[in-house]
Amino acid sequence: MYNLVVFGAPGSGKGTQSARMIDEYGLYHISTGELLRDHIARQTELGRIADEYISQGHLIPDDLMISILENTLDSNPETASGVIFDGFPRTIPQAEALNGMLERRGAKVNAVIGLEVDDAELIDRLLKRGQESGRSDDNLETINERLNVYNKQTAPLRDFYIKEGKYHAIKGSGSIDDIFNEIRTRLNSVKN
Ligand code: AMP
């Protein structure tokens, strides 16, 4: 079982690079953002709750997010052969919970790919995406809030995973192919 975390600020290319990695490594993809947007589209009770946080640019509370994640692992047996976690964890408690969940399943986070992009480029990309995505959180006010939340609550995970010896910093600007090649080179050197 090979588990990868794709980590980075909103707009850093997590979804785009995850799609490339699924093709290359045949791993199960869990994007917590997509999962929540699916609930919003289907107008479920969870979708209603999630929408309140997402449209403000805030994170879904840890307890709720962790139970959604564990539920996703339990209800998709294919996850046992390896997962790309895209957008999870986003806080230290989520990272600790993920370590526990994987340990109970005889697994671990093998590597963390950290896509690093400067703020000006992130804002530019998210505004462009907002013109096409129709996402309620891709507008300037919410983008700024999401970047604040990222810097306060999510960025500390970089140190968390550096201490665990799992963090691989990848320059997230440039062409999609070049970034993916860099990821592949790194992952090939840490197959464990
Ligand atoms: P994303 O598609 O990864 O940019 O996620 C969109 C939004 O979904 C985020 O801004 C959060 O409001 C929510 N979200 C996604 N993943 C998480 C998570 N792991 N913890 C808390 N909230 C999340």
Summarize the structure in words:
Strands 2-3-1-4-5 form a five-stranded parallel β-sheet, sandwiched between helices. Helix 2 packs across helix 3 (45-54) and helix 6 crosses helix 7. It has 192 residues and is an alpha/beta fold. The chain has nine helices and five strands, in the order βαβαααβαβαααβα. Helices cover 58% and strands 12% of the residues. It binds adenosine monophosphate.
Described by strand count, sense and barrel closure, the largest sheet is: 5 strands, parallel
* Unreliable residue stretches: none
Helix content: 55-70%
Terminal Cα separation, in Å? 10 Å
Mean pLDDT: 95
Q: What is the rounded Rg?
A: 16 Å
Task: List the SSEs and their pairings.
Elements (H helix, E strand, L loop, with lengths): L3 E5 L5 H12 L2 E4 H10 L3 H10 L7 H14 L7 E4 L5 H13 L6 E6 L2 H15 L6 H15 L1 H8 L3 E5 L4 H14 L3
Parallel strand pairs: 1-3, 1-4, 2-3, 4-5
Bound molecules: adenosine monophosphate (AMP).
In short:
The protein is an alpha/beta fold and 192 residues long. Helix content is 58%, strand content 12%. The protein has helices spanning 14-25, 32-41, 45-54, 62-75, 92-104, 119-133, 140-154, 156-163, 176-189, and strands at 4-8, 28-31, 83-86, 111-116, 167-171.
What keyword list fits this structure?
9 helices, single chain, binds adenosine monophosphate, globular, 192 residues, alpha/beta
